[in-house]
Amino acid sequence: MAYDSNNIFARILRGEIPCKKVHEDEHTLAFHDINPQAPVHILVIPKGAYVSMNDFSARASDAEIAGLVRAVGKVAEMAGVTEDGWRMLSNIGENGHQEVPHLHIHIFGGCKLGHMLPRTGA
After folding, report:
1. Which top-rank group of organisms is this from (predicted)?
2. Dihedrals phi, psi of 75, to nearest 5 degrees
3. What is the arrangement of strands in the sheet containing 105-109, beginning at the earlier edge strand?
4. Is 104 a catalytic residue?
5. Among 9, 32, 67, 97, which is least packed, fewest CB within 10 Å?
6. Per-residue model confidence as pLDDT tens digits over 42-84
7. Which of 44, 100, 36 minimizes the C-alpha distance to 70?
């Protein structure tokens, strides 16, 4: 999947599409998902043009990597989900059902989330 500079997250970063901002710093932007799947559903994105975690881990600077990891933790704490538990999810590629070609991490919480995948005998 190639980076599309007109994807929705790139447009949000450029200010072309509004978002309900939760947190912003030098390297990241976090905002509420427009179609929440849990009481707390926040997206955290790097400000750089990275398609996926594969792309980000290969090309991002150490400061960008640390910034994203710290932002995810900070946003989860700000959202009040750290005590009861929360889920972090990033879909990558076609088999991972990635829909937007810009790295984004979902933070889900505020309720019991259940199993993400069915348990197997393996």
Report:
1. Bacteria
2. -65, -40
3. 21-24, 28-32, 40-46, 105-109, 86-89
4. yes
5. 97
6. 999 999 999 999 999 999 999 999 999 999 999 999 999 999 9
7. 44
CATH class, domain 8-85, is alpha beta
Rounded CA-CA distance 3/102 in Å is: 7
Residue listed under structure tokens 């810009």: 102
Euclidean distance between CA atoms 70 and 93, whole angstroms? 24
Cα separation of 45 and 47, whole Å?
Answer: 6
C-alpha 63/C-alpha 70 separation (Å) is 10
> Could you tell me how many residues make up the chain?
122
> Tokens representing 67?
């910034």
End-to-end CA separation in angstroms for the chain:
31
* Choice among 41, 102, 104, 106 that is catalytic: 104
The domain ranges of the chain are: 8-85
